């Protein structure tokens, strides 16, 4: 099976997961040869790289490429998804780099920047910018494959915040395994419509392509479509009509926070795709409507920021953690809601 979803902005987590039960009549054979024959469009080199990263398991134990499979072995493998076969044109687009070494790069992605070329966005993307950044440094050119960033995960075009990329395939595979194991620590800050009854909670429900609109995702609580998804939330501040929440992802499905919050009755503020661009809570007064419309104008996107990212460095094994401040558009709108709440609600 495959553990990625595709949308207009690309895949959220770039890895595939396969589970294969070996036939009871199977003869002894190197596992890399066996998997090359069994997995469509997967090269032997890609399987060997996954094994080197510790992503190939037999009966729950990591094995190397030369392991000889036996009858009834249960094989599981996590494969980092290869870069798309598109020409990457280097473009001098400013990057807010938080950290960089020989193996990874961590950055603060600004809202409006698409991560990867494709679906009508063949230039002006983060990958184009990274390709330019790598091409300027002779160090990058001295390593095979470093001219092309190895994207490990994505955040939506109009979501801001911290994300990372790998600089070579081994690092990509090891990071992909962390995403698969749900050991990556990801926290987002969101402004949503409505007030929560509880201070914290969990939203669960399969997420998959909407049956009504292929550009949207939807929740299938019965699990009949989509993939398992879990979002944990904690209220940070209440403004009666909207709420500031922290969301922690246990899984990483396409549009997960946006879809789960809509499903819970709390669409993200000004999320055009999922109904948050309308006034969903509050009074009918003209003054209030003008206040909300002014907020929409300041924050012309969904109010979602990838606040922090924690992971284990794929080569050194060192714990890494990065935190990014809220961008100015979200900060302005939150401050306006805080002031409105203080002046018009708490005093009544």
Please characterize this protein's 3D structure:
This protein is of the alpha+beta class and 348 residues long. It has three domains: 6-80, Structural Genomics Hypothetical 15.5 Kd Protein In mrcA-pckA Intergenic Region, Chain A, CATH 3.10.290; 97-180, Pseudouridine synthase (2-Layer Sandwich); 185-344, 2-Layer Sandwich (Pseudouridine synthase). The protein contains eight helices and 20 strands. The protein has helices at 31-38, 44-52, 126-135, 138-141, 169-180, 256-263, 286-298, 328-344; strands at 6-7, 10-11, 15-21, 29-30, 56-58, 61-62, 68-69, 74-80, 97-100, 104-109, 150-151, 160-166, 185-193, 200-204, 206-209, 217-220, 230-238, 242-249, 304-312, 319-323. The strands form five sheets. Strands 9, 10, 11, 12, 13, 14, 17, 18, 19 and 20 form a ten-stranded mixed β-sheet that branches. It has a four-stranded antiparallel β-sheet with strand order 3-8-5-6. A hairpin with a 3-residue loop joins strand 9 (97-100) and strand 10 (104-109). The longest helix is centred in the last third of the chain and has 17 residues, at 328-344. The radius of gyration is 22 Å and the shape is globular. The N and C termini lie far apart (56 Å). The model is unreliable at 1-11 (pLDDT under 50).
């Amino acid at each position: 099976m495959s553990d990625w979803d595709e949308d207009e902005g690309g895949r959220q987590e770039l890895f595939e997961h396969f589970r294969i039960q070996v036939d009871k009549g199977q003869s002894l054979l190197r596992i890399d040869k066996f998997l090359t024959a069994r997995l469509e469009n997967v090269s032997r080199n890609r399987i060997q790289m996954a094994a080197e990263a510790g992503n190939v398991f037999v009966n729950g134990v990591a094995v190397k490429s030369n392991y000889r499979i036996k009858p009834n072995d249960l094989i599981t493998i996590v494969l980092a998804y290869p870069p798309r076969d598109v020409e990457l044109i280097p473009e001098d687009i400013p990057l807010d780099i938080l950290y960089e070494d020989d193996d990874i790069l961590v950055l603060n992605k600004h809202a409006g920047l698409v991560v990867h070329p494709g679906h009508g966005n063949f230039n002006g993307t983060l990958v184009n910018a990274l390709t330019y950044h790598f091409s300027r440094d002779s160090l990058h050119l001295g390593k095979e494959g470093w001219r092309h960033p190895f994207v490990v995960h994505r955040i939506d075009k109009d979501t801001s915040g911290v994300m990372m990329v790998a600089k070579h395939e081994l690092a990509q595979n090891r990071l992909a395994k962390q995403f698969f194991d749900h050991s990556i620590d990801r926290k987002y800050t969101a402004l949503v419509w409505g007030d929560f009854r509880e201070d914290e909670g969990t939203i669960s429900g399969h997420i998959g392509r909407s049956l009504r609109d292929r550009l949207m995702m939807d929740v299938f609580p019965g699990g009949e479509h989509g993939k398992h998804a879990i979002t944990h939330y904690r209220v940070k501040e209440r403004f009666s009509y909207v709420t500031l929440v922290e969301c922690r992802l246990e899984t990483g499905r396409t549009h997960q926070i946006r879809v789960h919050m809509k499903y819970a009755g709390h669409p993200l503020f000004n999320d055009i795709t999922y109904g948050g661009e309308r006034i969903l809570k509050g009074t009918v007064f003209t003054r209030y409507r003008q206040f909300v419309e002014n907020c929409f104008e300041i924050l012309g996107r969904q109010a979602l920021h990838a606040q922090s990212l924690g992971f284990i460095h794929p080569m050194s094994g060192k714990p890494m953690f990065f935190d990014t401040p809220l961008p100015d558009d979200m900060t302005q709108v939150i401050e306006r809601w805080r002031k409105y709440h203080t002046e018009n609600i708490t005093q009544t």
